[in-house]
Amino acid sequence: MADFSHLLDGYRRFRTTGYPQQRARYDALRDGQAPKTMIIACSDSRVDPALIFDVEPGQVFVVRNVANLVPPYETGGGRHGVSAALEFAVTQLEVEDIVVMGHGGCGGVAASLAHRFEDAGVGEGYFIRHWIDLLDAARDEIEASDVANPQRALEEAAVRVSLANLRTFPCIPVREQAGRLRLHGAYFAIADGILHVLDTATNRFRPAAS
Ligand SMILES: [Zn+2]
């Protein structure tokens, strides 16, 4: 059972094995980070980018949220956590790649397709609703089609929505055009553990070479 005492057990294992193994890396990172890649992934407990991409501390700057979504560039109201992380990664860390990774069995996508939380009050799903409504247009399009697997289709569409919204931030297209930043779409299929990559030529996902 993953209660807090189990986390502390894990921490003790980290102190006796992982930390000594990574000691040189942590020493090198002590005064700052300089990751070259930002990853935007779902908060889902099964899709940890550090595990899937087998990266070390200091290599990837990660934002995780419900359904791996990026909001459009908006300056009014609210607290823009994703936008702040994005701005920091792009303009301060000057990352060279941004990866948006969707995944199979996404609860946020399922909620969108089920129209859950649409009348929810605060404390009952209001914040979820007003986050996954970023998928409404894509969801409506899929509902109006006869696609065989709407869940998979919207999971993939969520990646495309986030990539499109990334490009509404002025700091992104200017760097893309200068060849200093590349955007990538990815999809991790939990059922078989296979990563798919969005092919920009076809706008379709295909399995990454393993
Ligand atoms: Zn998810």
Short description:
The chain is an alpha/beta fold and 210 residues long.
Give the helices and strands, then pairings:
Elements (H helix, E strand, L loop, with lengths): L3 H18 L1 H7 L7 E6 L6 H4 L7 E6 L15 H12 L4 E7 L3 H7 L12 H7 L3 H8 L6 H17 L4 H7 L4 E8 L4 E6 L4 E4 L3
Parallel strand pairs: 1-2, 1-3, 3-4
Antiparallel strand pairs: 4-5, 5-6
Bound molecules: zinc ion.
Features:
210 residues; alpha/beta; Beta-carbonic Anhydrase, Chain A; 2 domains; 6-stranded mixed beta sheet; 9 helices; 18% strand; globular; binds zinc ion
Question: Can you tell me about this structure?
Answer:
This protein has 210 residues and is α/β, with parallel strands linked by helices. It has two domains: 1-32, no CATH class; 33-207, Carbonic anhydrase (Beta-carbonic Anhydrase, Chain A, 3-Layer(aba) Sandwich). Helices cover 41% and strands 18% of the residues. The chain contains nine helices and six strands; from the N terminus they run ααβαβαβαααααβββ. Strands 2-1-3-4-5-6 form a six-stranded mixed β-sheet. A hairpin with a 4-residue loop joins strand 5 and strand 6 (204-207). Helix 7 runs antiparallel to helix 8. The longest helix is centred in the first third of the chain and has 18 residues, at 4-21. The mean pLDDT is 96. The structure holds zinc ion. The site of zinc ion has 7 residues, from helix 5.
